Each structure stands twice: as structure tokens, then as C-alpha cells.
Amino acid sequence: MSRTRHRWPGPARGAVGLALCLLLLSLGLASAVLGWRHVLNDLHSAQALAEQHRARLEAQWLLAWGMAQWPQDPAAQQAWWDQGQSSDCPLGLDRTRLWQCRRLPAPADGADAALGGPSYWRAWRDLSRAPHALQTEAVVARSAGARSQLQQQWWVPSLGRAGSDPPAQGWVTGACDQGQAGLAWRQVMGQIQPSQVQALSQAQAVASGQLLGTRGRNVYWVDAAQDWRTPLGSTAEPVLLVFSEAACASRCPRLLAPLVGTVIWRHACGQGLGDTPLLQAPVLGQAVIDASQVHEADRVWVMGHASADQAYRLVWPEGMDLALPLPVAGSWREGAP
């Protein structure tokens, strides 16, 4: 029995071959397009990573540049801070404290010219609780969309190391009868200089917006000879009140309002004391006077308290040179505050 073979006509076989060729060509083109898209995506990812890396390097440079702008001379610091505004402060700061903030735009000749958006260096510190801890931040925004934000904290010169702990009896007197002028100050304040206290008092007065604004303020340097009539401090927030040599030039001011913390009369070994008692209000903490004796009537007004030195005793790293800024160990980080 013979088999019948069917053959495709010539034109039909050509059409099928053409279709197969077109199908293979389409698959090849699709594969090429997908491969090219992957290449483009990889290229864009590499460019984005390179931009991000560059932004981070520029932020590191900006962080160092900003600290170079901060004046180490205490005499120039207040003028430098005065150029800042409240809007320079980061969002979320505790507004019951006193803050100093300064924001500087990135220099046009320093970081890359491709910077876009707000690129800046910023510094701020808590004047009432940690005036020696300076928080810094560098933000770089590049025009290609990359952004980097770095932060670092510094120990900066402020108040020196404090002296002895507050005495239980509350009174600290000097030894003028032995020719040791200034002994009472050195015993209590240690390495803290009067100029440092005066500078911190001025900074707090500026930050508070009024000469005797008490909210958040805890250091007062007084040159006026008038008696003091404003209650100050609490056991949670003790204060330091210093009547300067100028205040005691003729007669030291009297304390006529309650105080929690430390009050100091600076005078030239008894000059300006007279026979009038200095206290007519209670002091919970310590009273310091550079005299060999205090008026008998003043003794009953003072009661010792362990937190009397809280307003001026700062915690410093052991062995640190307090005249130079020092990065806080472990404070460098990336991201928002």
C-alpha cells in the first residue's frame, strides 16, 4: 500500500521561514533592549553611588571647615555668636533652655561647584547646662540629588575645672589676715577664671533676650552696686551669682531675695564689706566671701546643699587641655540630629 506525501507549496514554506526569522529577530532585539536597560540602570546606579560618595566627602570637608571658623579666642566668641539668629537653631530643641546657634553657608570656593540646594555648616550649644559641648553639623546637597548630613560634637573652652565640693556648713571664707587674697575664690572655683564667668553670664543674658531673664539662665555676673532683690534658683536648677569687684568698690550689694546655689562677693579682702550684714534672705547652697570672718547675722541665713555647684561644675574628659577644642569620642555620626 503506497503512502501519499503532502508537500507544502513553495510560497508557504518561504512564509513560515520568514516568520521564524522575524520571531528570532524580535527575540534578539528584545533581549538586546533588556540588556541595554540593565546596562543603563547599572550605569545610573554607579553614578548615584559616586555622587553620594562625593557628597559625603564634601560634608566631611565642610565639617572641618566649619570648626576652623569657630573662634578659639573667648574674647571673640560672643561677637561671633551674636551674628546668629534663632532660625539658625535645629528644630526640636528644648525651648526652656538657652541656646546659641550659628549657621554658615557652604563657601563657594571650597566645596564642589555642583552643589545644589541648602548646603551649610551649623553649630549650637546649650548655654545653661553644657556650654562646653558644641554640637556641629554639615549638610551637603548636590544638584544631582545626592545629599549627606554629618554630625560631630566637640569639647570647647568654656569654664575651667571647678574647685572643692560645697561645704556642709555653707560658708566659704578666705584668709586675708594671712595675706592670701583670692583664696576663697580659688577654693570654690578652682581653675575657673572670673573672665570666663563674666563671658558666660553675658552670653546667657543675650540668649534670654533680657538682662535679668531667669528662664533657663543659671549664671549671673553683676557689676552694679544695687542690692539684689530677684529670687534665683531651685534645687533642680541651682544658680551662680557673682558680685564683682566693681559692685563691691564702695559697698558690696546685699542679697535681699532667696537664692538656691552659690553666691560670691568679690572684693579686695574686706573692702566694701563694712559693718552691715550682706544677707537678709536665705541661701540654700554656699556663700563665698574673701574675708577671714563673716558678720554674725549672716551665718544664720546660709544652709549647705550638695548641688550648690551644679551651675558651674562641668564634666570634662580626664587630662584634656581646656584651652583647645577636642572632638567628643564616639560622637561622629551620619544622619539628622
| Rg calc | 35 Å
Oligomer: single chain
Strand content: 15-25%
Tell me the overall shape: rod-shaped
How far apart, in Å, are the first and last alpha carbons?
94 Å
Low-pLDDT sequence parts? 111-116
Helical element count?
Answer: 5
Q: How many independent structural domains?
A: 2
Overall mean pLDDT stands at 84
Largest sheet: 6 strands, antiparallel
Structural class designation: alpha/beta
Question: Care to count the β-strands?
Answer: 12
List the secondary-structure elements in sequence, H or E.
HHEEEEEHHEEEEHEEE
**Helix percentage:** 25-40%
How would you characterize the overall build of this protein?
With 337 residues, the protein is α/β, with parallel strands linked by helices. The protein has two domains: 59-158 and 320-334, no CATH class; 171-304, no CATH class. It has helices spanning 10-69, 74-82, 183-189, 194-208, 296-299; strands at residues 99-105, 120-126, 130-141, 147-155, 171-173, 219-222, 239-243, 259-265, 283-289, 302-304, 326-327, 333-334. The protein is rod-shaped, with a radius of gyration of 35 Å. It starts with 9 loop residues before the first helix and ends with a strand.
Quick synopsis:
The protein is an alpha/beta fold and 337 residues long. The chain has helices at residues 10-69, 74-82, 183-189, 194-208, 296-299; strands at 99-105, 120-126, 130-141, 147-155, 171-173, 219-222, 239-243, 259-265, 283-289, 302-304, 326-327, 333-334.
